[in-house]
Design a protein that fits this description.
alpha+beta; Aminopeptidase; seven-stranded mixed sheet; 7 strands; 32% helix; 30% strand; globular; disordered C terminus; N-acetyltransferase domain-containing protein
């Protein structure tokens, strides 16, 4: 029987995550591009500059970038809250290809939803996923998001989602 490791707790992005974050993005670039827009070559060429800008946005309370760190210090996933305003934010996440299928996305999204309500004082989260991204759509459904409409994501059809945090139930919370 395989050993079950505890799910990593989301950590706010810090400067010392830089090397592991860049490795995560490089190793998973093709995998991510199959279901979400590619970051482009400029992202990698200007990574240090981009990281400084993201950390400044986080310090200003505009965004909250979380990383899920594995046992060896590697980044296994990201769960971000972007464009924080008026009690709401956009949620986005990426999980390393080698870490999929183990509940990491569901756990990470649940925990960041809890942080959004308790630490950041948010009441509403928005998300979107392409129609063909069935795994992301399933995670959003499992974590209390409901479909609100249709959208285009990089020219491809998708769905928009909403989660009202003040309506969360015990079933939406991770087990203790």
């Amino acid at each position: 029987m395989p050993t079950v490791l505890p799910m990593p707790e989301p950590q706010l992005l810090r400067p010392d995550h830089a090397a592991a974050l860049l490795a995560f993005e490089r190793e998973n670039r093709a995998y991510f591009a199959a279901s979400v827009p590619d970051r482009g070559d400029d992202f990698f060429a200007r990574f240090d500059e981009m990281l400084r800008a993201r950390l400044a946005e986080q310090d200003a309370g505009i965004c909250y970038f979380h990383v899920l760190i594995g046992a060896e210090g590697e980044v296994l996933g990201r769960v971000n809250l972007m464009d924080v305003a008026d009690g709401g934010a956009d949620l986005g996440y990426r999980i390393a290809e080698r870490a999929t299928g183990r509940g990491l996305a569901t756990s990470g999204v649940r925990k960041v939803c809890e942080l959004a309500a308790t630490r950041y004082g948010l009441t509403t989260l928005r998300a979107a996923a392409r129609h063909e991204n069935t795994a992301s759509r399933a995670v959003l459904a499992r974590t209390g998001f409901t479909v609100t409409g249709e959208t285009l994501l990089s020219g491809r059809p998708g769905l928009t989602y909403l989660r009202r945090l003040e309506e969360s139930t015990a079933a939406d919370r991770p087990p203790r």
